[in-house]
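TA notes, week 10

Several of you asked for a full example with nothing omitted. So below is the full record: structure tokens for the whole chain, then the designed sequence directly under it. When grading your own attempts, check the secondary structure regions first.
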């Protein structure tokens, strides 16, 4: 919790040592994921407008619902995946690289099974449906009840290679 980011992009831990980022990505919603939810917000706003609003307030549901949908889409894209010299950072969680065990790439075709019947309920999961593959990282920490992490990434080969070093 005593960690902070410096201006040079290095992460400084509580001991004062800097960690260099080796990989970083934000799991933002792609451009093609925006039109349908925004259109749906517009249609719901039109239903509200046509149902009971007076003419001078007709603009209100459009502004509110479209803004709320845009805010929700931006919030969904805030998740980050990063690998530094010492840690794997996924969302707000971090894992020291010393506890990284076997690293598997789960391709898009097998993701449904990995996220369904094969998923351990104690696993840490950060999944974004619009990102194809996921990476499964088994933990070697005997005190951690979490057996593995499963998280989405657009470049699973790069992340897996960095974690296997």
């Amino acid at each position: 919790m005593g960690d902070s980011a410096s201006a040079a992009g290095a992460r400084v831990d509580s001991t004062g040592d800097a960690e260099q980022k080796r990989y970083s990505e934000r799991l933002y919603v792609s451009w093609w994921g925006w039109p349908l939810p925004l259109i749906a917000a517009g249609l719901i706003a039109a239903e509200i407008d046509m149902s009971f609003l007076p003419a001078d307030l007709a603009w209100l549901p459009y502004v509110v619902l479209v803004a709320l949908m845009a805010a929700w889409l931006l919030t969904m894209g805030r998740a980050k995946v990063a690998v530094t010299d010492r840690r794997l950072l996924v969302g707000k969680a971090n894992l020291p690289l010393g506890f990284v065990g076997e690293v598997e790439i789960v391709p898009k075709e097998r993701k449904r099974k990995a996220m369904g019947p094969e998923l351990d309920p104690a696993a840490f999961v950060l999944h974004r449906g619009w990102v194809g593959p996921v990476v499964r990282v088994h933990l070697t920490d005997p005190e951690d009840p979490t057996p593995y992490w499963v998280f989405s990434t657009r470049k699973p080969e790069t992340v897996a290679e960095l974690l296997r070093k």
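Helices lie at 35-52, 60-76, 111-115, 156-164. Use that as a sanity check on your answer.
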